[in-house]
Amino acid sequence: MQGVKNFFAKHRSGSTLGALLCISFIMIIISTQSINFRPKQVGLSIFSTLQVAVSRTARFFSDTVNSISELRKLKSEYEEVRRRLEDYENRERDFVAIRQENDRLTELLGFQKQVKYSHVAAEVIAKDPGNLFSTLIINKGAHNGIRKDMPVVAFQDGFQGLVGKIVEVGLFSSVMMPIFDTSSYIGGRIQGSRYDGLVNGSGKGVEHIYMKYVEKRAREDIQYGDLVVTSGMRSLYPRDIYIGRVRAIGAKEWETYLELEIEPIIDFSRLEYVFVLDGGEK
Predict the structure, then answer these.
(1) Residues 6+ positions from 12 with CB-CB distance below 8 Å
(2) Which DSSP category does 238 fall into?
(3) Is 26 inside any structural domain?
(4) Which of 44, 157, 181, 214 has the fewest CB atoms in 10 Å of its CB?
(5) How far apart are the first and last CA of the chain?
(6) What per-residue confidence (pLDDT) applies to 3?
């Protein structure tokens, strides 16, 4: 008896496992709804139990593998759909840009037919950010018939507006000085009241141009928003080209002239295309 105790003490883990197996066999026998010991039936029960466990395990791994494969397929399809969507969005943006460009060119073509002076159409290709955009460069030069001091106009919002004049000419490009430059002097006229003056830039940016030497008695006839055009008097600029609108009226008591602040008719921040006028009638 002491030897048996020593055996179980030394093999406690194995003994425990054997006991658990015995209990499992007993439970399997009971589950067959018969207390009679039938080795064949017990073997079948154990085998079927193992078979179900193996089958479920195999199905689990199979489902897992299939799920991973399906996820990879879905991810690939998602990436393809996203790529196509980005491609369609890019095409839509390109289409909108082309349509807008076409509308601008159509508008310019209509304006070009209305210009009564010989002219050369050009595109603004560069600006000088270091000098408050005081010079603009166009893509036409001497090769296209451009000469120094030729006036430059543009078409925006239904108006033919004055941009400036050519100051330097290269073979295939030219530099033009805009009307808000300090060196720019233009004979101007109030379109409604017909009072004359001299339009000059201040060099402080596009929004600061002034019409000086307007007779003081014109104060009662000038209104805010009045249009200012070129006078054409002893000037290289043709007459009746729009310069801007009256934004402010200033005059000191001891001065004999008015000074008008003018808002340019052309928005230089969105200036793209211009027309260089030859000066002669077509």
Answers:
(1) none
(2) P
(3) no
(4) 157
(5) 134
(6) 52
pLDDT for residue 256 is more than 90: no
Evaluate whether 230 touches 162 at the Cβ level (below 8 Å): yes
Compute the residue count for the chain. 282
Dihedral angle of Cα 179, 184, 186, 190, to the nearest 10 degrees: 50
What whole-number distance in Å separates Cα of residue 121 and Cα of residue 142? 13
Residue with tokens 């000059």: 200
The answer to the question of residue 101 being in a domain is no
How many Å apart are CA 270 and CA 275, to the nearest integer? 15
Report CA dihedral (143, 147, 151, 153) to the nearest 10 degrees. 10
Tokens of residue 2, six digits:
């002491």
Q: How far apart are CA 148 and CA 165, in angstroms?
A: 8
What is the residue range of 205's domain? Answer: 118-281
Cβ partners under 8 Å of residue 152, min gap 6: 138, 162, 163, 164, 165, 166, 176, 274, 275, 276, 277
Please give the backbone phi and psi of residue 4, each rounded to the nearest 5 degrees, phi first: -65, -45
Tokens of residue 211, six digits: 């019409």
Judge whether residue 96 has pLDDT over 80.
Answer: no
Q: Which of 41-45, 73-77, 176-180 has the highest mean pLDDT?
A: 176-180
**To 5 degrees, how large is the angle CA 43–CA 46–CA 49?**
145
Q: Residue 232: which residues within 8 A CB-CB, separation 6 or more? A: 187, 238, 239, 240
Q: How many domains does the chain have?
A: 1
Q: What is the CATH number of the domain that holds 150?
A: 2.40.10.340
Residue 217 has pLDDT above 90, yes or no: no
φ/ψ of residue 277, rounded to 5: -90, 140
109 lies in some domain:
no
Helix, strand, coil in percent for the chain, rounding step 5: 40, 30, 30
Q: Which helix (H) or strand (E) holds 274?
A: strand 273-281
Name beta bridge partners: 124. 138
| Tokens coding 18 | 């054997």
pLDDT at residue 132 is higher than 60: no
